[in-house]
Amino acid sequence: MAKILIVDDEGAIRRTLREILQFEKYDVEEAADGLEALVKIKQRSFDIILLDIKMPKMDGMEALERIQELAPDTPVIMISGHGTIETAVEAVKKGAFDFLSKPPDLNRLLITVRNALDKSTLIGETKVLKRAVAKSKVQEIIGNSAPILHIRQTIERVAPTDARVLVTGPNGSGKELIARWLHELSARATGPIVEVNCAAIPSELIESELFGHEKGSFTSAVKQRTGKFEQAHGGTLFLDEIGDMSLSAQAKVLRALQENRITRVGGEKDIPVDVRIVAATNKDLRREMEKGAFREDLYHRLAVIIIESPALNDRRDDIPLLVDHFIRLVCGEYGIAPKQISDDAMKALQQYNWTGNIRELRNVVERLIILSGDVITEKEVALYV
């Protein structure tokens, strides 16, 4: 149900408009002047605002400017009993969706409201699409610290080859981003990059996930399915958290790497595959080999090139760059102007113990943007981090 705010100092006008709009099944709230309207807009979002021009305390034109700052995507329909062409033109120039004279014609009012709602819907859909497009693009590797410069140089040298790469490092440190840049700068960039989180898939299903299965090969196999190796043909297969893969699956992955062919679960036919393998883990695979939990021959197949993704605590000089990047990113997703951050707040973030690494920092920045004012201060960092 669309939410509409009626702002008018005349109670009779508010009641009339409210009855008309509620009859059309809209959720309606009222405000008697511009200041009360701004308070309500800060408390909740509205799909449309009907705004009178002549009001005490704060007139409609001034309120319109403030609304443009607080809710720039919300259509504002100006209404006035003293309307002139000049007033209407000025209102539209300042960002109003349309201008109606009092008393508003019923049909004109409802048509204008519907058109404004269509605009509001389109804006929302556009934001979703922009967010999806932004997420589909490979993000930049942010930072100028020695570990990050070394990673960039290694990627530039290794990416054009088909050498297998093992990316190590703690959770949330950016291992997936390294894998995506290895793909982006390779000759396989036009092909797919397919990700498998080995830790998230039960051991009894990992083989079906990787190699696919034939119809009827097990109880729930009601149709044939292609696995991740086939889906990544001509591109890159990113095996995330490979240290959590079962030994039986490791043996089959090793065969696939040795022979460049796979066999679906329940099948007999060998299927050739052309994939580049990039693996990642937060575990010490050499220690896992000593415990018998990881195959040594598979390790040596995977670890042709080893790239270590550093913990955020080991690259604190990059935190200001990362924070600025996430502020722009998150504010862009929310459709608001980028917020500022004080020097003391930035120093506090640099001194924090980032056990969750980059992922934790991104979440903290988003939390601060939501809960802080126009400037993120040290006090807010202390409260919300």
Describe the SSE topology.
Blueprint: E1 3-7, H1 11-23, E2 27-31, H2 34-43, E3 48-52, H3 60-70, E4 76-80, H4 85-93, E5 98-101, H5 106-136, H6 146-158, E6 165-168, H7 175-184, E7 193-197, H8 203-211, H9 228-231, E8 236-240, H10 247-259, E9 261-262, E10 271-272, E11 276-281, H11 285-290, H12 296-302, E12 305-308, H13 319-334, E13 340-341, H14 343-351, H15 357-371, E14 375-376, H16 378-384
Parallel strand pairs: 1-2, 1-3, 3-4, 4-5, 6-11, 6-12, 7-8, 8-11, 13-14
Antiparallel strand pairs: 9-10
Q: What this model shows, in words?
A:
With 385 residues, the chain is of the alpha/beta class. It folds into 3 domains: 3-135, Rossmann fold (3-Layer(aba) Sandwich), CATH 3.40.50; 146-310, Rossmann fold (3-Layer(aba) Sandwich), CATH 3.40.50; 313-384, Orthogonal Bundle (Helicase, Ruva Protein, domain 3), CATH 1.10.8.60. It is built from 16 helices and 14 strands. Strands 2-1-3-4-5 form a 5-stranded parallel β-sheet, sandwiched between helices. The chain has a 5-stranded parallel β-sheet with strand order 7-8-11-6-12. A two-stranded antiparallel ribbon has the order 9-10. α13 crosses α15 (357-371) and α14 runs parallel beside α16 (378-384).
Low-confidence stretches: none
Q: Tell me the strand order in the biggest sheet.
A: 2-1-3-4-5
Order of helices and strands: EHEHEHEHEHHEHEHHEHEEEHHEHEHHEH
The percent range for strand residues is 5-15%
What's the pLDDT, averaged over the residues? 90
Overall radius of gyration = 29 Å
Please give the count of helices.
Answer: 16
